[in-house]
Protein 1
Amino acid sequence: MGDASMVGMLGRVTGTVGPGLVGEVIVRIRGGAEHFLAYPAPGSDRIEVGTVVVVMEHLPPRSVYVTAAYDS
């Protein structure tokens, strides 16, 4: 799977994402749901468990940079 194909996909935080933290998100992809290590996209703050996020960048094989999908 190439980098561009995951950019823009929605996921849900399953482990807190934030500066200095390696979090986790689950993304529906390839007919199922997969977990990825997650880092905050530049300019993003702490993102709590349960928050819907958008994938901003994918670093194969299992890392993504994310930002909150909706303002809270």
Protein 2
Amino acid sequence: MHVTIQQERCVTSGRCAFTAPEVFTQNDDGLVEVLTERPAEDQQGAVREAAFLCPALAIEVKGD
């Protein structure tokens, strides 16, 4: 799995950082940042959920 973000789409909801805190964080402006672009297998379910919950569709998940 490879995770990318489109930070310009972020609306600072924080759902990603709450759902997958090992993979996502928010900067001082509240915008999403990726901590790891290739999350461990045990984190992948939370990453997919975070992408699904993102109201701005700013998270892109590729691969398994």
Protein 3
Amino acid sequence: MNATGSVITPSASRQADLLVQGGIVMTPSGAERIDVACAQGRIVALGDLCGTWSAETTLDATGLHVLPGVIDSQVHFREPGLTHKENLEAGTRGAVLGGVTAIFEMPNTAPLTLNAADLQAKLDAARGRAWCDHAFYVGGSAVNAEQLAELENLPGCAGVKVFMGSSFGDLLADDDEVLRRILRHGRRRLAVHAEDEARLRERKHIAVDSADVRQHPVWRDVDSALMATQRIVRLAVECGRRLHVLHVSTAEEMAFLAACKHRVTVEVTPHHLTLQAPECYERLGSLAQMNPPVREQHHQDALWQAIRNGLVDVIGSDHAPHTLQERAKPYPQSPSGMTGVQTLLPVMLDHVHAGRLSLQRLVDLTSAGPARIFGIEGKGRIALGYDADFSIVDLRAQRIIRKDWIASVSGWTPYDGQAVTGWPIHTVVRGCCVVRDEALTGEPQGTAVRFLESWSQETRGASDA
């Protein structure tokens, strides 16, 4: 038995495909200075393996921390249809360069991801091009509500995503009866973008009349978010469905959601934790424009408090790039969304360095948390039998984030020029080292994320958990 309490089963040959040696490994029991042996994409041994195991590939992690692979459960990679902004190859390449080993991609592409053929087209497009593992959301809509229970269980489906605001056409679900139909068809946790579409339309004149991006959080105010969040939670209680509320941005929502944790999980984003209004709008202009908006300091303080008190379950990047040419349009014609998958881990490691959260808490928010709440099979922790996914980082490395490092087709980052402490050095996906010494290596070998069958077969009565 090793220091983690896991039994090491000897193999006849003690031969691994990959041996990670000398690092400080973040196990479920905490940080341990142990080695990790990997074979056929899985972890097969943990402990002091020097001299007892050999491997085809050895990775020296001396002075580094070995984290369970980071899972970014909210990205928009724009393929198909919008590949002038982003695509699956570039998006996943940026992911692994930033230490991310798996992503969940959103359905607002062209065509929208609304049926089995749409989902399969994305899985086919990712084959041989995706650098990390992946799953794709199906959009919850009036046109497919009755099919969602079947669609959410298809291989490679991350679940159902609902846009209550900030969307268009068949993907916009802002009517209570439509939302009830969606909520009643399916058992997996439903992800939701909660902004009140009617209020946004009523208040859009604020943005139009001002033509000033600093008015973005005034137009899309606290009530726009809070009203939608309260409404979808009420409907979820009525329909017996679990929710995952994406990119929560306000103190008021956090106060409300604290009483709903038996049914609702919570995501926050690095940009809401890092950027502040009005300074970010004055410095970056429309490059700081996101939905929901980056808000004032007291909202950010509430998000950090929610991380400290355990209310937040997941950090997702909401990577949603547009080209610089599109972003240069006068506000509010400028589209909302920024790159984020590649900078998620560096930005959050810098917050660890600053003492805003512990490394163990970051692991929970970016690995164990997503695996737990979405029922991901074999990911989210460094333990025997789990996928050999590792984000190997140097907590002391000092770097400056530069736009020329960004792999995204859009080629920019709101963090250009920002100094950070903490940086991804190696990225391992199912035992394959795809980034070594900060450089891409090998070929794209990402596959569809697997989900636990029992997760989607729960009875509706158990969905309160």
